[in-house]
Every structure is written in C-alpha cells, then in structure tokens.
Amino acid sequence: MFVKAGLATIREVDLASFDVIYICPHRSELGTLIFRRRHTPPQRSLFIELPLYPQHGTVERIRDELDPGQLHDGWLP
Question: DSSP labels for 22-37?
C-alpha cells in the first residue's frame, strides 16, 4: 500500500497504519526515509509531500504530529 499526503492532512493519519514514512520535496516521487517500524517488512508506505519552501524544523513537527508521546522507536535522525 502506498499513500501520499500533504502536511495539512497528516493530523488524520494513524502511525500504526504504516511501516515506513518518507518525506518528499514538493511534486517529487523520491523521498527521504524518516520512520521505519522494526522487524516489519515495509509493505505500507506513507509519503508526506513538503511544501515548496519548507520551514526549518518541519521534520520534527511531522514527528510530533504523528507521534506526540514519542512512543515509537522507529524514527530516524
């Protein structure tokens, strides 16, 4: 399963529904891996499209939005 979302729609995303999460530059299909669930094959992927000019700290805000309690250990630096 492959899902692409914008920053405005990630509030409705359930982190448990995905094995890997990528961030992608505006209008790009290539992404940077920011989350990988351990011991699980990457079958369910979420691609989050960044705005044309992302602000500093956008990745941290995405992590805080998807995992506010920081309960998951699959986040990559």
Answer: EEE-TT-S--EEEEE-
Q: Whole-angstrom Cα distance, residue 17 to residue 51?
A: 23
Query: What three-state secondary structure class fits 71?
Result: coil
Alpha-carbon span 24 to 31, nearest angstrom: 4
- pLDDT tens for 38-50 read 888 889 999 999 9
Q: Which helix (DSSP H) or strand (DSSP E) does residue 47 occupy?
A: strand 45-49
pLDDT at 8: 83
Task: Tell me the two tokens of residue 36.
Answer: 């990988």
